[in-house]
Structures are given as C-alpha cells and as structure tokens.
Amino acid sequence: MNQRELDQLSINTIRFLAVDAVQKANSGHPGMPLDAAPMAYVLWTRYLKHNPADPQWIDRDRFVLSAGHGSALLYALLHLTGYEEMTLEQLERFRQWQSLTPGHPESHMAGCVEASTGPLGQGIGNAVGMAIAEAHLAARYNRPGHELFDHHTYALAGDGDMMEGVQAEAASLAGHLRLGKLIILYDSNRVTLSGTTSLAFTEDVAARYRAYGWHVQRIDDGNDLAAISRALQAARETKDQPSLIVVQTVIGFGSPDKAGTFDAHGSPLGVDEVKKTKANLGWPEEPTFLIPEPALRHLRSAIERGNTAEDGWKRRFAEYAKQFPELAREIERRFRRELPASWASNLPEFPADAKGMATRKASEVVLQALARTVPELVGGSGDLDPSTYTWLKEDGDFESPLRPREGVQGTVGGGWGYAGRNIHFGVREHAMGAAVNGLVYHGGFIPFGATFLVFSDYMRAAIRLSAIAQLHGIWVFTHDSIAVGEDGPTHEAVEQVLALRAIPGMVVLRPGDANETRCAWQVAIERKTGPTALIFTRQHVPTLDRRVYAPADGLRRGAYVLNPEQTQPELILIGTGSEVSLIAGAERVLRERGMRVRLVSMPSWELFANEAAEYRQSVLPAEVTARLAVEAGRSIGWERWVGPTGDILSVDRFGASAPGDVVMKEYGFSVDNVVARALALLAW
Amino acid sequence: MNQRELDQLSINTIRFLAVDAVQKANSGHPGMPLDAAPMAYVLWTRYLKHNPADPQWIDRDRFVLSAGHGSALLYALLHLTGYEEMTLEQLERFRQWQSLTPGHPESHMAGCVEASTGPLGQGIGNAVGMAIAEAHLAARYNRPGHELFDHHTYALAGDGDMMEGVQAEAASLAGHLRLGKLIILYDSNRVTLSGTTSLAFTEDVAARYRAYGWHVQRIDDGNDLAAISRALQAARETKDQPSLIVVQTVIGFGSPDKAGTFDAHGSPLGVDEVKKTKANLGWPEEPTFLIPEPALRHLRSAIERGNTAEDGWKRRFAEYAKQFPELAREIERRFRRELPASWASNLPEFPADAKGMATRKASEVVLQALARTVPELVGGSGDLDPSTYTWLKEDGDFESPLRPREGVQGTVGGGWGYAGRNIHFGVREHAMGAAVNGLVYHGGFIPFGATFLVFSDYMRAAIRLSAIAQLHGIWVFTHDSIAVGEDGPTHEAVEQVLALRAIPGMVVLRPGDANETRCAWQVAIERKTGPTALIFTRQHVPTLDRRVYAPADGLRRGAYVLNPEQTQPELILIGTGSEVSLIAGAERVLRERGMRVRLVSMPSWELFANEAAEYRQSVLPAEVTARLAVEAGRSIGWERWVGPTGDILSVDRFGASAPGDVVMKEYGFSVDNVVARALALLAW
C-alpha cells in the first residue's frame, strides 16, 4: 500500500467510524465528519504535536473542535490515534447515557477532549484564550535556548461558527494581539442546519479576517491533502499573525444522494444511504465500526511520535529545571493546579469605617495582593478597567511585542509584551468569556474576566459553559444594582444575580463589605471545581466593625450571623452586598426600640445550601418565622430563605436614571423602610 | 450671518447644550456630543426626513443613537428641532429622577426617542431591524406611483459599538440583505472608556464592512461639513447596499485639555474645563443652556419642513387610499397597533390524542393560521426553521430582490423579495434579537424571533431590552429541556426558563399541550405592553382530552385547575409544559389508590401572580399544603407556589447526552417517580 492509498484508507476509516457512530445512535451529524476528515487527518498526522499516551502533556498542541456537532469526527480521531479512554466501545455508545462520547464534546467527561464545544462560535473564543495562554507562558518562562512553551492552537470551525458574534469578537481580538500560533481551519461546506449559506450568509469571510489582521489562505478542494498540508505549513511559518485557512468542502462528501445538501447536516444518513456512501467510497458495508489494520497502525504511530516528542520535552524541562529551579517548580505547581503555599499570607484586613469603600474598590486592593503571590492569576475586563478596578498594577499589559504602542492612553503597563498579565479584551464581553474559558482549558491559569454586572447578559453563553465544563475561572461583575444611578435601567442590574444563581454549578458571591470582599476572593481562588461569580458594588458601603460583628470569613459558609450575641431573636434580617449595611442600620434602630433582631449576611445561596442542616438551622432557626430579606435584586427564590410568613424587600421592576442614592431611596432601600417592613412583619 | 457662521453657531449650540447638561448632572458623557455634533447637524438639517410636530409620522426617517451614552446629543437635537415633549427643562433635568432625559435613551419614556440604546452594539441591530421593516412595508404596500414607504434608517455608532458581536452579526445580515436604505455614521474617535482603541481594537473596520457587502466611505475630518454632506448624499444614492460612513473625529473636540483623551469620554469635563472649552470655541461662559436665537430659528425650521413633507405624504396617502382602500386601512390598522377583527377566528382546536404532538409542532400549526389573518406577524429563526417550525409556509422568504437565489436549499419561499415574511437571520441569535426589537420600534409589526431555548443565552441582552422598552415582540424558544436528549448538556435548557422569568416585564409561557399552545400564541399576540416568551417542547406530549380536563384557555390566567370536579383535594400536583401530562398520569395512578389529587397546569408564573388573590386561592388553596411542582427546570422560585411543606421535582444540575426519554427518566421525570414523591408528601 502506497502513502496515497494509506492516506485514503485512513481518512475513510475516520469517516465511517463517525458515520457508523451516528447511524447506530440514530442521532447526530454525519455531514461534517465526511467532508472534514481529510483536513483533520492531515493536521493530526503531519502537524499536531500530541501524545495520546499523555493527554495532559503541558506543551502539546491544542485542538479545538469548534464545530462541536461534528463530535464523532473528534472521537474517531482520538480513538484511532490511541487515547486510551476513548475506546471503540465508547464510539459504539455515541450519544448514550454516561458514555464519554456525548452529542457535543464535553471536556469534563473525557480528559482527552480539550474543550466543551457545540454552542457555535465558542470554540473560536476558547482557542483564542488558549493561544493567549501559550503566548503568555512562553513569554514568562521561556529562556534563551529553553523553549519550554512552544505549541500551536488549532481550531476546526464551520459556517455556523463564522456567523456568531462571539467568533467575530474573538477573531478581532486575536488579530489585534497578533497570536501567530493560532490556526483555524474553516470547513466551508456552505450548508447549515436550515439550508445553504446562500440563504443568510454571503459575506466574504476571508476578507473579513484579513481586515482583522489575520493571515488568510484558501483551498478550493477539501480533499486536496497536499494543498491542506502546504497551507498548514505556511500558517505555521507565519509567526506574527493568526491564520485562517478557508477550506471549500462538500458536506456529506461521498454520499451519493445527500452530499452537498442540508439533509447531510444534522441527521443520520439512514441505513440505505450509509450503504450507498460506503459503496461509493469503496468501503465494505459490513462490519460497522471497521478499522483496517494498516490504517490503525498508521494512525496509532501518533503514540510513538508523541512519546518521542514528550520525552524530548521532558529532557529539556529537566535541563531547564537545573538552571531555573524556581521557575520550573512554579510551572509544575501551576499545572498541578496547586496554589502557592503562602498565597493568602498578605491579604488585607480592612479597618472599620462608617463611610467605607465600594466593594469594587476593596476588590482592587485584594486583587493587587493576590497578584503578587498567585502568578497564574491573569485576566482583564471588557474595556472597563477604570470602572471595574481589575487592573493588576504591577503586572503590565498583555500585548503583542510587535504592535507599536503609540498613542496608547488609559494604562501604564506597556513594554511587557506577552508577559503582561492584564488582557485588554475590548468591548467584547462574549469573547472575553470564551477566552477566559480557553485559559482554563489550556491549564496553568486562574483567569478572571470583568465587566458590569448587567453586561453578564452579553457573555452568558460562555459563563454557562464555564459551569458545564467545571472550569476554575472567576467572573468579576461590578456596578451590581440600581445604585448605579444615572446611567439608568439599561446599565442597572436587577435580575442578573438571580440569573447567575440559576446556572447549576455556579457559586455567586455578593459580599457585604470590604472584608467580606477579601473572603470572597479567597473562595474564588480556592474553588477548583467550577466558576465563581463575584458581585461588587459601584458605590461606597460601610466597612463593618468586626469587633462588633462576627468575622467576615463567615462568608465561606454562604450565610452567617453577624450578631451572634443576640441568641433569642424575634426577627431575622437577611441582607446581601450593599444591603448588609442597611439591615445593620435597621437593627440599631429596632434594638433601640427593644426588639431582638438577628442579622444575617448571606453572600451566597449556593454555599449556604451546601452546608449541613444543623448549620443552616443555627443561622435561620425554623422557629423564627418573622424574616425579612433585603436585596437590591429580584425577589424570586428568596421564599426559600424567608419562608411563607417572611417578607422580601427587592427590586421587581427595572431601575431608573437618577443619582444612585435617589434611586435606592425611591425603590425603598433605606433604613427607615427596612425598619417599617420589619415592624409590619412583627405585627403580622 | 452667513451659512457657515450659522452652521457653526448651531453646532456649538448642540455641543454646549449637551456639555451643560452633563455638567449640571455632574454625570454623563461629554466627549461624543462634542465630536459628533457636526455630523449629526448635517444629517438632521439636510437629510433627515422627520416632523417634530408628529414624532409618530409613519414615513419618517428613523434615527438611532447606537452610542447611547451620547444621549445628551440626542436630547439637544430633539429640543432644538422642536419636539414638544423635549423641553429645555428636560435637558436641565438630564439624568434626574423621572425626567425624559435618562442617562441612556429610553423610548418608552419619550415618544420622540426611536430606540432604547446604551448597551453597545444593540442600536446597530435595531437599525437593521428598522431597515428590514421599511423594505418589507415598501415591498408589500407600495404601488407604482405610490411610494408610501420610502424612508431611511440612520444610526450613529461609536468605537464601542464596532467591537460588539451583535453589531458584527447585524452588519453581516444587513449586507446579505442589501438593505440600501440603512446608513450608519461611525463616529471613529478612537477612544473608549478605558483608553484609546489602540489598546484593543486595531482592525480595519472599513475593510470588514466591505467584506460584508457594504458601501463604505471615509471622512478624515469630523468637522468637514461638506464632506459629511457629500458622503451622506452618496450613501443615499447607493440603493443596493447599506452604507457605512467612517468619520474620523477627536473626542471632546474643543476641550483644550481633554480633547483626544479618554478623560473626555465618560465624565463631565469639570467646571474649569467647560469654561476653557467654551472660550476655545468662542462660546459665552454664561448663561448655561444658552440657545442663540438664530440657531434656534434655523434648527426649528425642521417643523415647517417636516409639516410640509408630512402634508405631502398625507395627500399621497389619501390618493393611495382611494385606489387601494383595503391596503390603506391595513396600514393604518397596523400602525395603530390594532389587531384585525377576525384575527383569531380560524385558530385550530386540537383533538385529544394520547400520543399527541410536540408543542413546537402545535405552534407551527397555530402560526400558519395566525399568519393568514395577521399580516404584521413577521419573523424568523436563527438558522433553525426545520427545528423550531416557525417558517410561515405561505409567505415567502424576506430576501433582496437583487441577490441571485442559485443553489438555495432548505426553503421553498423564493421570489418574494422584500415582501417575504420569513427572515433568515442565520446563526446570529443576538442580531436576531436586536433586529426583532427594531421591527417593533419601527411600528407596523408584531415580530417574532425563534431559536432553541438554551440559545436564548446568546441573545439575552436584546431580550432584556425588549422588556425595558416594553416592546410587543414574541420570543419563540423550542427544545425546552433535558428531553432534547442526545445533543447533551450544551444544548439542553435547564436554567433558561427561570432566567427568562427573572426579567421584569417578561411573560413566560410554557404550554402543556397543543391546545395550551394555541392559547399561548393568543396571549402573545394580544399582549401589547411587553414581550412574551413562548417555550415549546421538541418531543411529543399528549394532547389532553378537554372533555375530561378544563378548557385550555385557563392558560390566560397563568395557572388553572385541570380537574375542577375534584373539590376536596388532599394534594396538589402542579406542572408546566411537558410535565403537565406527567402529573396527569400520576393523578390517574393516585386516584386509583383512592387519593384526592388536584391537577394544576401553570404555564406562566407572571400571569398567575397578576391575578387577584381570590383566584390564586381558588387554584392553590392555602389549606392544601401538600403540593408537588414538577418542571424540568430549576427549582429556584417554586417555593413561592408549593409553600414550605411542598416538594419540587426539578432539574438542578446540567443535562446529559442520551435519548431524551432516557434522560428524562434518569432525572426522575416519570409517572412512577411523581407518584412516589407525591406519596412521600402525603406521608409527611
């Protein structure tokens, strides 16, 4: 068998593993694997640096299947190249209960899957994040003669990806950052779920990517292996621009009746058409899931190549570790996902202060301290650093060393190149979300992304995926309520805290003062099993006197009693965030009237719900039924905590444009009103 | 005073009204009004067809301030050109409680504001929707010699707009649709909130828009009125492409110390700098809010021009009405927002059917019937027609008559040009949302946008704005739960119903069978005060036998008793959507065991919450405390309806990839499990 025959045999093996998997599941997308198998084959056999024997090798190339509906293609590649967990049985159990081969790739199910994709466009953003990760690690750790970090990020995208806004944002950002090691193969089969792209999508994608500053190539025939290989080579040689390779393909290639049609996109070909397609491409009808030995041997050589490559890297790493032992330990630590021993040693304690400070401001102070001890803490905002206060002052801007910095205002962090830790995402919240996820997927980072709370809506799809994939990323949302004031309802969060709480696996923390803010950051840094959303105020809130009130680290349990000395409460006031000081003020008034009021700060429903029943009962005793929750957000869900006879002071309409204190007062967020509502409860 | 002097006087009047408003509020964005006043002035005085005496004139040009943070510019223009409600006092009360001049424009506050903008990029999408509206109305109603609909849509956008994904999606769509009457002025001042665009945004926007198929022009000097005028003229003469005019400006123009810097973007200039700026541009320091008489007279001539233009149009409309009385009545009716008398006359009744049908399928049947009687019902999906079943079969595709339809698959609606009512939005959920909002803003439409429920996350910012602006649009979300099955957690809605319920002013309807689906559409069509979200299943659900169960129009009240003959219930089962048939099945089992079970279908929390307490008590009697809610979504908020001793069968984690019935069963959604949970409640 000559190379050409072996190539074709291998490609058809990939194709029909995918087709058989879809057909057996009677569900899935056969069209893309049929057309994209050649480009995937060329990439995986000639360029992709990976080691199936060690899916976690730090310096492997990353491959993101952005067109996640083509998952069967990915699973076939993983099985054929020798990833142990991706057995043939898993392929046969495609899309079945608890298989490692769900309908769309899920990285937390199978360690060899680099990213959870499927919602279109996200994979492009993930890939941009991974390329940022590689560039940063290389700039920070590589030394002359020691190119420890030197890998590419590849993504395979489809027409649907290319229509999504998150993709557009991410591509614009990647072009700006000149991420030369990012290479996207665009499988342009011109068919989507509902028809041909001529229905809705006739832009010139290549020209658009050129406008972003990308290196762009076109291949007219998706089966032209030599052309694909040349293009990949040229893309790899282009060091100063990300690369897009537009590959014209025919969806469902090989299917006599369905190739080139949208019937091949999202449904199994059908038993008869599978037969015809196999016949057409010279493939035996039976058995299904056929893997010819020469193809397997050829594709499994990835293990040997991978072991060789990784062994070489390990030797280089050992050399590096001799010369730079601290750096080497730091790298290993980061990828083991362990925090530095003394990471929390210098966190600030904030003194009691009646005027206090905005929690976004307290967050800034905490963040600076964390940045000094936790080098994997890297992130940025959606063009809002001067407002979210998330700029790491001692760590420079992440930027292309090739891009002149003339006329830059608004930051003083120039000259760091890719070693900077502040990523300027631009007004691109959604791409920020997907890129932050990409940084986690890559490994070696605890990344954060920041914007105003109300604009969490712009990036919600990415936030959701961070929760599905159980990613240790941190979402920082400031300007958290109607107290934003003059900017008005379009900029005032009302339902966003609830909407974030609604996402399974998310921990939402709305700290009540500066010291709770410190503890909230600690939780977010420590919590490895999923994302944390930190919700901060724009406006000042008093820093509670912790000599009077309980220590702020009660936050770790989600809710805690601020005044435990009051052991016989007749009323419980529950507050979160800026409303904690409000209930504290009300308690003082009520106490003067002789009432026994318990104060509960409840920064996180999720953490509190995870506590044992005894603890929950100790904070919210069932026998105290007069309860008032105060939160400048929607009331939905608070019934769980205040019970049937409780009351909720909330915001169940949109905000308004006026000075923040006016809006808060008009909406009932005043000590007087809290007192009045509390008294009404006791009368009840 | 010569024209040049009058121009400058007028422009500076606009500038300093805005600057004084910001300074008085001590909050806002002075930089953009200073730099964009010249282009706005040229547009508003030489091209914009509008009548300040009648802000609702149907054939006026639409002007969208996409860069909504420059609202003071818009308010100044509206006041100066003579919109009655936009008094000088309103400008003086900029950003104050209950003024018509909130921080960002709000169309429901002031009728002369065309769109609620501020969240960046949305205005571009709104403008695309308005241009679609004009093109459709022209195609549908204009007749040779009767150009009733012949107006432009203008938008003024900034750098922030140009970074947002929603903008990219909308621009790609507009280019595809060749919306020649859409003209965007891009105020390229190269400064955003956090600094200069060189920090994060260096793409070639002009080239990108050309790649979308737009006509693109550049103006190097934002103060060059002649160049601006020529460009607008050329844009208007370009009939087959939308136009982008890139205008290079200097933010905060005229401010000696802040022009060209990001200090001029989002904060008042300050008292001293206002003085210096006024001196620099030859403007008196006092009084503030100065409006020189010649400028006012000049700008107020808009009223006379507007009256003349509208009078001419009214005469033409009268002529038209003579020749085409039915069409004229239809136009008037649509813009009065009245439904046709017999709009609901031919809606289907679905017979009882144990196998039943997916509610998305029932929706399709209802939608076809509605399309016949409600011509203003126009919409489409995000590339999902074959799955959302939202294609209007008799009404053709909305498409450019100039774009060849070769190779189109997936639809049979060709040849309608802009008269088609099915808009192929492409995989652009966010732009779909903003464009649907634009259709409502334009007037004459009840538009809908459809996608999978899980992808409501992609368009959430637009959905929120539809609620803020109280827009009568309809969001159609199918594939509503883990029952989606094989596509897995990335495609399975869990928290989305709750997240939609969280949006104030939104009515969320999750009908339980085909007949409830009909009623849900009726509510959505009738409900003029805000948006409605319709939530449909992918999978079959039984069509309940309404001879046995109560009529489906109980849906209108949000929740209703399905089996009212059971007057002494010991247990209440509450279900929504696909879970209604589940509780009905459980009730049969429990009845056989001698238990008295009430069944409540609860398609909408919001409608039910709006009912009188007596009705709510009649459905959910306080004395029946054994209650079980069953919904394949998050439990949060259900406590309100089941009370402290109730139970909730819900989905509080992400879904899974497997056949839908398997996933539902594994997650506990079976008659057996509902029965078991019910029995446990009664034991309790």
Essential attributes:
Rossmann fold; elongated; five-stranded parallel β-sheet; seven-stranded parallel β-sheet; 684 residues; homodimer; 13% strand; 3 domains; alpha/beta
Give a brief rundown of this model:
2 copies of one chain form a homodimer. With 684 residues, the first copy, chain A, is of the alpha/beta class. The first copy, chain A, contains 24 helices and 21 strands.
Question: What does this protein structure show overall?
Answer:
The structure is a homodimer of 684-residue chains. Chain A is of the alpha/beta class and 684 residues long. Chain A has three domains: 3-307, Thiamin diphosphate (ThDP)-binding fold, Pyr/PP domains (Rossmann fold), CATH 3.40.50.970; 353-401 and 409-542, Thiamin diphosphate (ThDP)-binding fold, Pyr/PP domains (Rossmann fold), CATH 3.40.50; 557-682, Rossmann fold (3-Layer(aba) Sandwich). In chain A, 41% of the residues lie in helices and 13% in strands. Chain A is built from 24 helices and 21 strands. A seven-stranded parallel sheet of chain A has the order 10-11-9-12-13-15-14, with helices on both faces. A five-stranded parallel sheet of chain A has the order 1-2-3-7-6, sandwiched between helices. A five-stranded mixed sheet of chain A has the order 17-19-18-20-21. In chain A, helix 5 packs across helix 15. The radius of gyration of chain A is 28 Å and the shape is elongated. At the A-B interface, helix 6, helix 7, strand 4, strand 5 and helix 8 of A face helix 6, helix 7, strand 4, strand 5 and helix 8 of B.
